[in-house]
Design a protein that fits this description.
The chain is α/β, with parallel strands linked by helices and 249 residues long. The chain folds into two domains: 60 residues, Winged helix-like DNA-binding domain superfamily/Winged helix DNA-binding domain (Arc Repressor Mutant, subunit A), CATH 1.10.10; 175 residues, Translation initiation factor eif-2b, domain 2 (Rossmann fold, 3-Layer(aba) Sandwich), CATH 3.40.50.10470. It is built from ten helices and 15 strands. Strands 6-5-4-9-12-14-15 form a seven-stranded parallel beta sheet, with helices on both faces. Helix 10 links the parallel strand 14 and strand 15. The longest helix is centred in the first third of the chain and has 15 residues.
Amino acid sequence: MLKEERQRTILNEVELHNRVLLTDIAEKLDVSIDTVRRDVKELDAENRLRKVHGGAVSLGFANYSPARNNVYALEQKTAIAQKALGLIRDNSVILIDGGTTCLELARLIPPQQSITCFTLSLPVAMELLNKPNIETIFIGGVLSKDSQISIGANTIHNLSQIKVDYGFIGTGYVDASYGLTEFDWDIVQTKKAVIKASKNTVLLSISEKLNSQHRYKTCDINEIDTMITELEPNHQLLNSFKDQNIKLL
């Protein structure tokens, strides 16, 4: 495989999943980790992704930018956020997870809407601060430099003390049979706590992530109450999810 093809694949994986491990990319491309490391270093120097220890993250995920000029599949994520917005009612209490799709939801909430919103995402909190009728409660903990969300024991403890009407979460990988997965153990533990803190859990995911999985399991698919993609609920790509106990929007 030519270097240009390798780097295009790396960028696609990083943009789709927000974060990737060098070992996973090396296995996918059937090349050495050193080869992938060199490619990632070049892409970082060209400001096309950000190199981190053991992997890479997308610029849209790692850099909070009001301009949104580096967010992958922005049109699809905006469509998902618009659907999710229809679930939010005045005076409700919600929780918004981290990630670019969840951030789009935070952007779309009207300034006049009166709600209480918990979040463990620094970018989401910063976005909500501009909306005068939203009471924003940041759930503290150790801040992940890659994902800009709170993780760790303190975050999980704080989540155990609340019960919100709707918890809006993202995921790196989702499969109808295996459920939601991530490659980061700390992120998985945090998402488990978010699900427990939510009366209704709503998964926001672009369709490109469907039928993918990784090593650490967040939950079975039927632990999610609603899944929102940019697709129509009757789309054939969602057929495998229709037999699950989950609402599709």
